[in-house]
Amino acid sequence: MLSRIRESRGPCADAVRPRLRSSPPTTPPAPLKLVQTGKMSCEVNGKKVGALGFGLMGFTWRPDPPPVDQALEALQAAFESGMTLWNGAEFYGTPQYNTMTLLEKYFTHRPGDADKICLIMKGGMDLTSQKPDGSPEGVRRSIDNILKQLNGKKKVDLFSYARRDPNTPLKTTFDTIQKEYVETGKIGGISLSECSAETIHEAAKLGFKIEAVEVELSMFSPDILGNGVVAACSEHGIPITAYSPIGRGMLTGKFKDTQSVEHLGFLSKFPRFEAEAMKHNLKLVEQVETLAKEKGCSPAQLAISWVQHQGGRPGRPTVVPIPGATTVARVKENSKLIPLSKDELAKLDKIVDEFETKGDRYPSSVPTNT
């Protein structure tokens, strides 16, 4: 897939290339040394964070959100595991229960954690229509609502413009955020989400400092490695926060058919989870499971580590994967990075390069690469 993106060799819609199979090891693998996330770090907006971050969507934006006590325990486990970059959104949930209300509870109980967490909050969406609203009135409403519901328990380190509004000039949107919120100290800085390389370059040309870019990156979705986003972030020194590093749960190996994803609500309607596409996409999961077994780790750990290893290469910025999890056990599993040798990384890169994922990342109604 990467070669298709990088070299633009023409259409190959739904082409299925032979999948690679690794020979089983002749001897049992040696015990794997896992790397605790907290022992590695990078900086986002001047704040040191762990090599892995934490996505908060699953706590509040699903048909059956976990109990609050379970969510609070998982948040604490993420913090204690060194996953100190947290990514939420104003629209993750309902007006009564959402990212902000959950975090208000957490930081009320654990106020000492607040300054050690780098919190990125997405917004700039009309909560009724679920469409981007980058107008001055729209972003004011969004940021003010986030701050009100956090109730002073945690500063918003970065406000992330969730999707670019085609009806509002970028300068108009960012002028409002910069002058009324960043320069007044109400928030720490500006981030972009699900953006194109062109938007990144435009923001830089306008003189705005973009502190982070949140985009999808996984073995299922390596698009940003070849569509200019990674190159733009590298050029302007912007770290990437990589969402859905385990393919919305597919790369855990726990989904085997369409019935097993029905509980995911709207995600189960995404093109990649439709029956025909899912049957094909599980072939990639099988390859990851095989290599993970040889490596002595879980498929999710291998998938997350591959994403993290995409950063720091020549011509690439820092990449901080932000996997989500709603149980302590899953948080602890995801928090441990797997060391990958040059040969192992090359093998994984080749698998990704030669695998054609079926189905788009989102339904056609959802704006992407804005």
Main sheet attributes: strand count, strand direction, barrel closure: 8 strands, parallel
Structural class assignment = alpha/beta
Q: What is the fourth-level CATH superfamily?
A: NADP-dependent oxidoreductase domain
Average pLDDT across residues?
88
Number of beta strands: 14
The figure for the number of domains is 1
Number of contiguous helices: 12
The unreliable regions are 1-34
User: Could you tell me the strand content as a percent range?
Assistant: 5-15%
Named at the architecture level, the CATH assignment is Alpha-Beta Barrel
**How many angstroms separate the termini?**
21 Å
Order of helices and strands: HEEEEHHEHEEEHEHEHEHEHHEHEH
Helix content: 25-40%
Integer-rounded radius of gyration: 20 Å
CATH class: Alpha Beta
Q: What is the CATH topology assignment?
A: TIM Barrel
Q: What would you call the shape?
A: globular
- Strands side by side in the biggest sheet: 4-5-6-9-10-11-12-13
